[in-house]
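Journal club side-thread
Mid-discussion, someone asked how the predicted structure for our own chain would compare to the paper's figures. Pasting it here so we can look after the session.
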Amino acid sequence: METTSLYADWKKIYPRHQEGFFRKLRYRIYGVELAIFFLLPWVRWERPEGMPNQAVLFDLPGRKFYIFDLAIWPQDIFLLAFLLIAAAIGLFFMTALAGRVFCGYMCMQTIWTDWFLLMERLIEGNRNARLNLDRSPMSVNKIRLKLLKHASWLLISGWTGLTFVLYFSNAPEMIRQIVTGSAPFPALFTMLFLTATTYVMAGLAREQVCIYMCPYARFQGVMFDEDTMIVAYHPELGEPRESNRRKRTEMKERVGSCIDCDSCVTVCPTGIDIRNGQQYECITCGACIDACDDVAQKVGMTDRLIRYTSLREMRGDGKTRWIRGRILVYATLLTIFLGGIVVYLARHVPLDFTVIGHRQPLYILQSDGSIQNNYTVRVLNMTETGQTYTLSVSGLPGITLTVAAINTHTSEGLPLLTVPPGSVTPYTVYVRQKQQNVETGRHEVLFTLKAMSSTGGESNYKSVFMRP
């Protein structure tokens, strides 16, 4: 009994290089993104003495992210959540508007795969040369070309892994440690891991990542509508196909503009035939448009069989509607989250402190009849300079505050707390309420920490004062 497999064997794809408008556009975008990724760790930024001078540094041991003039602390973790949500909504907005344009022009997988294909073409040749090389028997020249290609891939992968690590440490110092063999194990492991994954994903897996591994390819279809821009073949112009030029001139019945040259198939990085209709494997890169336009120009045809269009235009129901319900919803949500990030950064106070009441004992009855509560106050100075703060408490009549081991005060009697830049300093604080003002039960009090300088900020913290 004959059995049929439910799975098709993978066939290696040999995409042909095709020059054209969209190829040049992609190369320019790729170049900008690669330049940012590889050069940014080497950009220096002037900061006060004792702080890193790397423009972008994710300092995990110090629990701080430096992005030019912005310093992000663990207390700003919800800012990261806002950024991730805004990025997701931005991707939805882009998809609803222009399909999988992110995959074709901005995705890291696409960029590195295209880079690896460029090296493969420079070493082994274009599509036909690579096909003939793989089909040819093993020889010295074939081994040499294969080794050279994989060596270039490993070099790019290693450079990628190293650059990623440089974002988490001072770049010149990390390079010196790697060269001398004194680099920490986590850095070496991360670099080797990213080298291996880049080599496998961009060099070996290639289109399989886009087709089988990437979840975006599976759910992006639900964000499409009849006005979403897609790369599409127009069968009303191209069908029926006829490749024989003599037959095309002799045939009396209508013949389509498509000459069935398969150029659109041979240039596709995911190996699909765009003439079969819309397919989830299409990454909207426009390579088939460049190929079809090139052939049309050579044979003197004016019809653009493959182009960026929408299902509405293909049906002849009018022009694409750029402004519609889901676009407005995505744009509104994106504006809200991006606006929230801007407002947070504009109103961000570079100061954080917590007040923890002592449990043993909950309160202390003094000899004069007053009630005392003890607290531990932790002050975090998130500025790049040392700050001096005043600490006060309010919320109860007859309440006073003193800080252990602090002898300097303002003219109003408020204690002065000095905290170095980028550090946390704990203080033991005693709060008392006079006997004539004491009532029973707990009561909420408000601690206020205010910097003496205009750049230090001001912050409040609610706590509880315990009484019999």
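Post-session note: Residues 225-315 form one domain.
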